[in-house]
Design a protein that fits this description.
The structure is a homodimer of 233-residue chains. Chain A has 11 helices and no strands. Chain A has helices at residues 21-35, 42-48, 53-56, 63-75, 88-104, 107-115, 121-136, 141-162, 171-183, 191-200, 205-222. In chain A, 42% of the residues are buried. Chain A binds a DNA duplex (30 and 30 nucleotides) through residues 1-2, 18-19, 41-43, 51-55, 57-58, 62-63. Chains A, B: Keywords: DNA-binding, Transcription, Transcription regulation.
Chain lengths: 233, 233
DNA sequence: TGTCGCTGACGAACATGTTCGCTACGATCG
DNA sequence: CGATCGTAGCGAACATGTTCGTCAGCGACA
């Protein structure tokens, strides 16, 4: 069954490092930077590492986890502002927008990250920074803790939704279809849509995103968590 | 090339309806109710319709669009409360929670819907109802219009994130990994996480969801949209 | 009546993520 | 030094969504 056991003469390759998780992630990052994320497939990665696709699953549970690792590297570039009691609000909104923009360039990354909560080093630093900014703004600890979750989710979901980079070009058509459906909505059946028609699509993406973050931060700030101190032991 | 042109004797089938979009969606719904959403594959659907997978793409652009059609049928069951100036807030939060719960049973539906804005009849009714409730609560039209987007997105994203029904059982492991990462976060490196540790994971899913919706509604209500009336012609 | 051309349908194929057993290497132990 | 066993690695396979080139059937027209 194995007469062609010629080991492909891997003399030109750098002696084949023994295949580790970090190595796989590093190669994935290189491919992504050189050819884009959509070229980072399990098979391509395996070929690059001179092995078969199945071997990768020893170090990475699935594609989503690989995406998580890639994101964590991207997050390293994010500039984290210090917690300042005066500028906390604008810094926070800016940071969230920057996070969202990072993902907007790689929507399929956003889709993976939405499913699988990342647990990388840089992601933890991001969470910590957001918590710090909320605290600097006087937000109670419980609300800040619950809020950081929703704030990051909003950014991730926005990127997953609005991002149509290459791979899924048809999504624009769908959005246009939705816009048309709203525009053509019969007035008597959907009176509120008719009334809000002009406002539903107004504003650029960035404006709306900033507004959404501002609104959510305001809500997190002003909304108390239920029965806050009862469970205290 | 076609000596086996025996038409499979479709005498037992109801004469094979001539393959329409509505028919495909109806069969998809039946399969979903009988065997679960994960069994609704293009191939299965084609087999059921006595054709090949390729034929479906005449009536449906892709799997996501099919998911959108399925969701719209599910949304028909949603009870839409009337716009009441007194009870608007609880009705609104309740409706959003109901919408989220609908999707929580079918997370892959949520993931599709997040990408592709649905434009079905029932979805439009939902949007209209939410707009009406916000208006009943005295929210300015512009903020309501921008808010309905974010509110629905929060529900959809939550379902896509927390939903681990069958198909992706490993996501729980990842979440546990994230929890562990947060618990073990070194105190000096992530002081805010350390401080918020107990609050980060407190509360049941339903409690947190209700709180998130409440907070977001409050924010939408209190946050003005930028330069509201300038573009007016 | 015979021929042309069009459109809906389809069989086959491709690339993807993921899984299943087998293989063969290397450490461990007698 | 030799036998044993655990395990990393891997080839092959499977099911999925999606696309491509082709074909049958049918209406229009000479």
């Amino acid at each position: 069954m194995s007469p062609r056991r010629v080991p492909v003469s891997r003399r030109d390759r750098p002696a084949k490092p023994p295949l580790s998780r970090d190595g796989a992630v590093a190669v994935a990052l290189r491919i992504m930077h050189e050819e884009g994320l959509e070229r980072v497939t399990m098979r391509r990665l395996a070929t690059e590492l001179d092995t078969g696709p199945a071997s990768l699953y020893v170090y990475v549970q699935n594609m989503a986890e690989l995406h998580g690792a890639i994101l964590d590297e991207l997050l390293a570039r994010l500039h984290l502002p210090p917690a300042d009691a005066d500028r906390w609000h604008d810094e926070l909104v800016g940071l969230l927008c920057a996070y969202t923009h990072l993902l907007l360039d790689h929507p399929s990354l956003a889709r993976s990250v939405l499913t699988l909560r990342p647990s990388g080093r840089h992601y933890l630093r991001l969470v910590d920074t957001i918590l710090g900014l909320l605290r600097a703004g006087g937000v109670p600890i419980g609300q800040a803790a619950w809020g950081v979750d929703v704030l990051l989710q909003l950014g991730t979901a926005t990127a997953a939704e609005h991002g149509t980079r290459g791979e899924l070009a048809g999504a624009d058509d769908e959005r246009q279809l939705f816009v048309m459906a709203l525009r053509e909505a019969p007035e008597q059946e959907h009176p509120n849509i008719a009334e809000a028609r002009d406002d539903l699509f107004s504003g650029a993406g960035m404006q709306r995103l900033t507004w959404a973050f501002t609104a959510l931060v305001a809500g997190v700030r002003s909304t108390a968590t239920p029965v806050p101190e009862i469970a205290e032991g």
